[in-house]
């Protein structure tokens, strides 16, 4: 008699890896993955919400930040600078609430890839700008080693977003509460 409770196979596929032929499960097992996902959702979502709330009061500051990277045509800069904080807020709220987790994580990952590329090119070209990630932006006297740490931060957030793309089912998510069929009903 085994003291280890094994969920039905469908639960393994939904929340974690399938068991190996010897009955063991690789990390993060079916019980751990959703908790890792919750942590990823809260961290990435929280960062997006904070970043957007710091930018929303001064939309022109966000436009200056986008312009400082010197990669986009001027005709695009004002629109992108104005829209970016709103996009960040929506993505952050969706992740915090656990609604449309995979699509929100995809948008998050795409934004982070663009941000890493933008910061990397600014660093490589010798531009002295504030990334504008949490407000601010534009030219600064000396960004020092901030580019390196901004890239490290964004790569970490990118990895967390990628986790959520691959494994969007997490603990304390509103999505199954709002969009699941009642027990006993199948759609």
How would you characterize the overall build of this protein?
Strands 1-2 form a two-stranded antiparallel ribbon. It is built from 7 helices and 2 strands; from the N terminus they run αααααββαα. The N terminus is likely disordered. It has one domain. The protein is elongated, with a radius of gyration of 20 Å. With 187 residues, the protein is mainly α.
Largest beta sheet: what is the strand line-up? 1-2
Separate helix tally: 7
Given helix and strand content, the structural type is mainly alpha
What is the approximate shape?
elongated
Largest sheet report: 2 strands, antiparallel
DSSP summary, beta strand count: 2
Which stretches of 5+ consecutive residues score pLDDT under 50?
1-17
Mean pLDDT across all residues, rounded? 82
State the end-to-end distance. Answer: 37 Å
Protein name: DoxX family membrane protein
GO biological process, one term: methylamine metabolic process
Organism: Nocardioides bruguierae
Region (Disordered): 1-24
Quick structural gist:
With 187 residues, this protein is an all-alpha fold. It has seven helices and two strands; from the N terminus they run H-H-H-H-H-E-E-H-H.
What's the layout of helices and strands?
Blueprint: H1 9-15, H2 33-55, H3 59-68, H4 77-97, H5 101-124, E1 129-130, E2 138-139, H6 146-166, H7 175-179
Antiparallel strand pairs: 1-2
Helix pairs in contact: 2-4, 2-6, 3-4, 4-5, 5-6
